[in-house]
Amino acid sequence: MAEKTPEPSRTTPEASEETKAPEEAPSREETAVRSGRIDPMAILWTFGKCLTALLPVYLAGYYRVSTSLVVFGLMVYSGWKHTREAKEARLKAAIQSLGEDQESSSASVAKRDLPAWVNFPDVEKVEWLNKVIQQAWPYIGQYLEKLLTESIAPSLRASSSHLQTLSFTKVDFGDKPMKVVGVKAHTENEKGQILLDVYISYVGNAEINVEVKRYFCKAGVKGIQLHGMMRVILEPLIGNVPIVGAVTMFFIRRPKLEINWTGLTNLLDIPGLDVMSDAKIMDAIASFLVLPNRLTVPLVPDLHVAQLRCPLPRGVVRIHLLEAENLAAKDNYVKGVMAGMSDPYALIRVGPQSFKSRHQDNTSSPKWGEMYEVIVHEVPGQELEVEVYDKDPDKDDFLGRTKMDLGIVRKARVIDEWFTLKDTDTGRVHLKLEWLTLEDNTERLEQVLKRNESVLSKTADPPSAAILAVYLDKAEALPMKKANKDPSPMVQLSVRDVTRESRTCWDTVNPQWEDAFTFFIQDPHKQDVDIQVKDNDRVQSLGSLSIPLSRLLSCPQLSLNEWFNLDQSGPDSRIHINTVLRVLWMDEHAVASSLLSSDPGSAAKRGASLPKHASPDPSFATEGVLRIHLLEGQNLVPKDNLMGGMVKGKSDPYVTINVGGNTFKSLVIKENLNPTWNEMYEVVMTDLPGQDVSLEVLDKDMDMKDDFMGRLKIKLSDIIKAQHIDEWFTLNDVKRGRIHLALEWLPRVTQSDKLQQVLLYQAKSSYLNKAVPAAALLFVYLEAAHDLPLKKSGKEPKVGAELVLGGTSYKTTVCDRTSSPQWNEAFHFLVRDPKKQELIVKLSHCWDFPLGSVVIPVKELLSQPDLLLDQWLNLDGASPESQVLLRAQLKILCPKVTESFKEHSETPALPKTSIRESKPEAESVQKSSEPLVPVTITSSVTAPEEKESRKVPEAPKTPETPKPLETPKAPETPKAPEAPKAPEVISQADVLPQHTSPDPSFSTEGVLRIHLLEAENLIAKDNLMGGMVKGKSDPYVKINVEGTTFKSHVIKENLNPTWNEMYELVLASKPSSEVNVELFDKDIDKDDFLGRFRVSLSEVVQAQYIDQWFTLNDVKHGRLHLVLEWVPTVTQPDKLQHALQLKSIQSYQNKASPSAALLFILVERAHALPLKKSGKEPKAGAELVLGATSYKTKVCDRSTSPQWHEAFNFLVHDPSKDMLVIKLSSGWDQPMGSLVLPMRELLSQPELLLDRWLSLDGALPESQILLRAQLKVLNSKMASLMALGAGPVLSNKQAATTGQIKISLSHQKKLAVVVHGCRSLVSSSKEGLDTYVSLILLPDKNKATKRKTAVKKKDLEPEFNERFEFDLSVDDARQRVLSVCLKHSSSFMSRDKDVIGQLQIDLAQVDLLSGVTQWFDLKEENN
């Protein structure tokens, strides 16, 4: 077949002008000769030229000019003319050669580089876009510079330790912008998206310099060239500005990329990059731009970017590389005298996915028998490329290649063909290609597993039965790194031996990755996906998770989208993951023969093996129906003023509702500020995020523009989440007014027995706009037709299809000339009565020449399994073999109100629930004899209404003992003599739950109590004289439990310190982590390591109580005395006194007070909160405070009935005194009410549990909050042991005192401290000690609070008698602690004997006004 040459529209205007510029117009003589007739004008023109030529000769003779001068002039003219003619000839030849080159190159591009489905007239020039890009290029460069320096540079520095000093020193994208050569807009794509192919060409003078300071290396880029076709997808399409939710860009095939490097030799000398080459770097950059890598730019908030960046694949292609034959011989011997064979192997590529077969030695007809599987993301567009090479020791020889668009495989299902190799003289390769569709159910899984057992392949990987898509969203509350630093988390996902890594989120405990990954699964029953959250160093684990894939098999649509708690992580650490499993299915009965076969009888074969069923997109039949019931308005703003505004009038209100690109307009209610519309609208929509329901109220005017009366906006996602919303909505941007709406996202079912209930509800519904509720939603997928009749002229038709149901009709695209057109288009219809309506599909040539039709009564679908019809249907009015393949899916729309209708009951008298009885207004135009809609809508979303329309339960008088919210009874409906009872009208107060619904894990936590006592025989780290003199250490302890770190005090210069400190932590009842204990020596610069050990929390929980000396690891010697207690919780109030005794028996140096109980709080919701001062509903949040601990809930969207469902816990030290305070506010700034709950009230409750509605102080009388408070007493074993005198014992008590010191304390205008003297000092020196006393007022350690006495030489009972004053008031002094230290003034050689003894005096315990003089015991510096 002749090659198709580019059409003239592909030639640019510039090229056309250049081509035509050198061509001269034909002369008049030539025109006359060509025409074969005498032209008088041509004769006159010839005479004029001769006269002009002879005129210079005449003038030369007339003026007697020398003959030689004339001859010289003629010679100059002749030479000039000859030169000009030669130059023109060369120029014409060059232009002709250039034109031929352009034609051949454009033909080559059209034939080779562009895919087969690109038709040149479809590619449009967009010069206007290039002008826009040229003007915006400087600002695009600024954005790219920011992207390089702020995003890419940190990622490069973190990717390798050798690149930690990398930085971009210059980023300049130049003044040459990118150009868009052409744009092709696809029309055969999914609904809700726009598909564009953008052909780009960038030859830029960008200059980017990078420096790695560590290796003194500078390199850069000076000039980039990029040419290729980039696909741009605009999705999802939404009904609000900016219309497009996100823009996704990628290259289907690798673009042509050329980079002019500067200093590349220096860059490749860096360790870690020395294994790379220029070609490898170019390959890496180019492959990053190709599928499955996508660049997604969200344009609206709350968009699932991960699902757009990596959507579910279109399918999977299983490639069987069978054999090849007649390959070229490349292995020659004796310098080509003896011909040999080849050692062939094949390279298979689909985008960045590549496979390499085994090579066969010395053969031209290799038999591989290997199987590979590739994921297909975009069809048409993605290509399969097979290249065959001859294996050689030095450089492999090329043996040929072949390409195929995978869109052909999708249509044919299976292709088993010999493909001739191109770019070579001989050879062909045998491939079998199978298209596997993605099934969202397990009906065929066992069949797939059984079939895969029979698939033979010489590759190591067996055939896959499914694919797993993992959408990694985000994590929360990850544990901190060591030294209490924020981690930089990344995630490793593993399925068997395949591991993929996410990107790194830097310095955060709440990372958001929004990444997606795909895995092949051989058997979902046996495989797991393992998830490891690690720091960016890949060493420190931040948590782990394992999900058995068998769990997905029981989930709806094989999808699991939820939060998972992380193991071996923090107590609140969790990760949000969406896992989607799809079974790989190939319908062998629907397989078509190869479309590439050259057999003359291939058309007959294709007709015999047409696919039996349609293959719609996975998004087919996923739309839903939003039903909007506009009921009434109230207290609207008057706009019709009389007498120049002196007399207030009313308004003529009407409502416009815009949703999903559809606009609905209500009737106009004349002169009414409290109108009742009672109108219903329905719209079919996708559940994509970013969509809103926009409503505006306007006043109808006759002469001028309609007046604005308010607006409101409701998120579609909120409606879908709630399913039903029946609420009064306050109008925005006006002073007052509200609208009553009932919004319902209708559930869709495929159960035909539900239809009768829906039709019964439909018959009893009545609306003023005469709308009839739809009973079902019909989805139609029109795939193809077969053997359609030819036109009368004998040509094949250009076929289009029109689908009609009731008053709704759709038209498909018109296909190119063929008798077997393919549309692959989907449509939907709202069906009022499936028992009566019919779907008509009419096929025609260009909408004027009928080709056949088919009529499908919708009632026939009711008898089909799952209400689904998917088959070929014969066409009426066409040839006998003419058929059309379509898929019709009916789904019944079941509003919640239909639950009260019984299928076989007689027609019930529905309750006529008037919306609201508004007062009659004068001269009201609205009159109707029809009743309002008898629809009973129950909603979990409540809103404030007038007291007349709803009874609000009375609030209890005292907040300490609130009564539960009473449920008002609905008015009884009169009974008919023989009719069944009518369903009761459920008011909004009735649906309020009386109790909370906590998670099963609520109040299951326990308390870990850690008692740090002492250490023994620690290593001395403070050496003197360069290590010649051994010193001591200044030890302290760090204890880390599930991300929480406790740090003890520092004990100065002591190898046997005593801390006596206690810590408490609330943990899950089944902790899986460890208690990590580390000891350090405090130094000025860097603390020295003294040892570590670990204790498993599971052992502590099992043993309940551990009192043990633990040997320190990673050091020579040392051990630590620690008491670990898992304190169980009980709900017996008589155990409380026993728990409080521990507080009075035991004291700790860190001033810790043992908790007596654990309080669990579940804040579920609030009800009837007051509006803000502006009249808007509040954004309510709750703050819970108990003692020094406080928590805040999330801030809900605007509502007077917010729902939180959040749980908290508090450690309670004294339940008889502590109180819980809950404060509600709007946005944390405007108070909405509060509640005080004394803990002692829980002690009188059964099981110490309070679960009910409680009234709020400082709010409306009906304002209440629903919460659950569970108090659990800590049943401590340590308290029992301490009461018996058998608690933990300190081994270092023998070194308690080293003498006594006499001090006087008093306050008269100033704090006065008198140091009298010391006695009974302990010393190993026979000559005595050189002593002095140092005083410090803690916690301030500065010159103003430090004092010291004079030194007393060689005296074991020194007398100082020195007075010191501190300028402090009595109140300030009582908040201080006086630290007294007796020291020995010695040389640095005896540093270990400087401190003789010390003590601390809490001045709050001293009667300073009366004065105190007392002997105090001095102790060693060990506590």
Note down, in words, how this protein is organized.
This protein has 17 helices and 66 strands. The protein is mainly β. The strands form 14 sheets. Strands 1, 2, 3, 4, 5, 6, 7 and 8 form an eight-stranded antiparallel beta sheet that branches. Strands 9, 12, 15, 16, 17, 20, 23 and 24 form an eight-stranded antiparallel beta sheet that branches. Strand 13 and strand 14 form a beta hairpin. Helix 15 crosses helix 16. The model is unreliable at 1-37, 107-120, 592-608, 902-990 and 1388-1392 (pLDDT under 50).
Strand-helix topology:
Layout lengths: L12 H8 L7 H8 L4 H23 L4 H47 L9 E2 L2 H33 L6 E7 L6 E8 L7 E19 L4 E18 L11 E6 L4 E7 L1 H4 L10 H11 L6 E4 L6 H5 L5 E11 L18 E7 L2 E4 L10 E10 L6 E8 L6 E9 H7 L1 E7 L7 E12 L5 H8 L13 E11 L12 E7 L2 E4 L10 E10 L6 E8 L5 E8 L10 E7 L8 E12 L16 H7 L15 E11 L18 E7 L2 E4 L10 E10 L6 E8 L7 E9 H7 L1 E7 L7 E9 L1 E2 L5 H9 L12 E11 L12 E7 L2 E4 L10 E10 L6 E8 L3 E9 L10 E7 L8 E11 L112 E11 L18 E7 L2 E4 L10 E10 L6 E8 L6 E9 H7 L1 E7 L7 E9 L1 E2 L5 H10 L11 E11 L12 E7 L2 E4 L10 E10 L6 E8 L3 E9 L10 E7 L8 E11 L2 H7 L13 E12 L1 E10 L11 E8 L7 E3 L10 E8 L3 H4 ...
Antiparallel strand pairs: 1-3, 2-4, 3-4, 4-5, 5-6, 5-7, 6-8, 9-12, 9-16, 10-11, 10-13, 13-14, 15-16, 16-24, 17-20, 17-24, 18-19, 18-21, 21-22, 23-24, 25-28, 25-32, 26-27, 26-29, 29-30, 31-32, 33-41, 34-37, 34-41, 35-36, 35-38, 38-39, 40-41, 42-45, 42-49, 43-44, 43-46, 46-47, 48-49, 50-58, ...
Helix pairs in contact: 15-16
